[in-house]
Write a structure and sequence with these properties.
Length: 417
């Protein structure tokens, strides 16, 4: 391996907060001993001249103790994962993982590993891909030296994603999703034997809990162009293991692009992307994917709401349709469900009404409230809800435009009842 020193790149490219944390860690280790290394994705991105956001430090020593000392006196949230010998420190402008160098064993395919302290070489050998299995020394005269036992830099030059050993996907099938995500993010290719192993071991996805797969999907949805990852995942067969019939195609690609335009300057988020990915599934397939991924209540309600609203879209294609009628069809559905149906809609009339609801109607409120209705003589009970509904309909249909108009309408309602 060529002799590469990244000390200058680290000074230039790591976030200032990370440089401060590293300097403090080096000072603490001078007294207590131990060797510190930058590892994983940060090294990969330094070599690719890409932005470095998350910093992964590996310590040949006690990471729990060092993390606690680094957090002392700092405005930082610290989380210790003692069974896995890892700590996370989160400042407002930096996410830093500090890990005891470790070796690991898998009791069975798909199980979380059992870990024990080890050497840096042990730690790098347990990584997912060669391009993520490099480290940089942060120690004394050795500072900045690249450590690459598995040909990661050659694979960066060749633009390939390669697993470290034949059992990699059997040990942890979530690596399949990460392989595709890195391939598409970096514009690389899966190394030939890696792709062969992935296709051979697709069945191992059944050994992974739904929560872990959902975590990987959320990471996919955080990519700049998640549709690229999903379309490649479909080619490789990964989507079929989420739900039979699940497809990522050119139409979904267009939906995702529309979702980003609609969500600017923010990100569409995992719920909207998932609603669009699963939009064409039937109810049975939707139930299966919800159960498979162990989705939380909010996401489950959004996905089912998207499907229910899809079945009601015909009611929104009638012309002319009063604003109050549009509101009654859509009231109670989440914003994400409405947005998904707008993006995936194929009727101009329906889409116009969905957009009117999102842009205007959902914000319309009455000036009078329930207590005021009682003060005006409306009986407590169901009558309150009925009258408020009548006032809201009048507001939506521009039949009233002020508090005074609502009072006049209320008097008319009282006289006629």
């Amino acid at each position: 391996m060529e002799n590469i020193n990244l000390a200058d790149k680290i000074e230039e490219r790591l976030p200032p907060r990370a440089l401060i944390a590293i300097s403090r860690a080096q000072g603490l280790l001078e007294k207590r001993g131990g060797k510190l290394f930058l590892a994983g994705g940060a090294v990969r991105d330094l070599l690719l001249d890409k932005p470095v956001w998350d910093v992964d430090l590996v310590l040949e020593g006690d990471a729990m103790s060092l993390a606690t000392d680094l957090a002392d006196g700092e405005d930082v949230k610290i989380t210790l994962h003692k069974p896995f010998l890892t700590a996370n420190l989160r400042w407002h402008d930096l996410n830093l993982d500090l890990t005891t160098a470790r070796r690991e064993k898998y009791a069975r395919p798909g199980a979380l590993p059992t870990v024990a302290p080890g050497s840096l070489e042990d730690d790098l050998s347990r990584r997912d891909f060669s391009i993520n299995a490099m480290a940089v020394s942060l120690n004394g005269e050795d500072n900045g030296r690249l450590i690459d036992h598995y040909g990661g830099i050659d694979d960066l030059h060749s633009k390939i994603v390669r697993i470290l050993h034949e059992k990699s996907f059997k040990d942890d099938a979530t690596r399949m999703w990460r392989a595709v995500r890195y391939e598409q993010r970096l514009d690389f290719k899966l190394e030939a034997r890696t792709e062969t192993s992935l296709k051979r071991d697709l069945g191992m996805l059944g050994t992974i809990t739904g929560e872990r797969i959902w975590y990987e999907l959320e990471r996919v949805f955080g990519e700049e162009l998640p549709e690229k990852v999903l379309m490649r995942a479909g080619q490789l067969g990964l989507l079929e293991y989420l739900a039979p019939g699940l497809r990522a195609d050119a139409r979904m690609e267009g939906w995702f692009e529309a979702a980003r335009r609609m969500s600017q300057p923010g990100n569409p988020g995992a719920q909207l992307y998932t609603a669009l990915l699963t939009f064409n599934l039937d109810n049975r397939a939707m139930d299966n994917i919800v159960q498979r991924l162990k989705l939380n209540r909010a996401t489950t309600q959004t996905l089912h709401g998207t499907q229910e609203l899809k079945s009601r879209r015909e009611a929104l294609s009638v012309e002319p349709l009063k604003p109050s009628s549009i509101y009654r069809v859509l009231d109670g559905f989440s914003e994400v469900a409405v947005r998904a149906n707008l993006i995936a809609g194929d009727s101009e009339k329906t889409c116009r009404n969905l957009r009117l609801y999102l842009d205007k109607l959902r914000y319309v409120k009455t000036s009078l409230n329930g207590d005021e209705l009682i003060a005006f003589g409306v009986k407590q009970g169901p009558s309150i809800k009925t009258v408020l509904g009548l006032l809201l309909d009048a507001r939506l249909d521009s039949e009233v435009s002020s508090r005074e108009d609502e009072i006049r309408l209320l008097r008319q309602i009282s006289l006629s009842s």
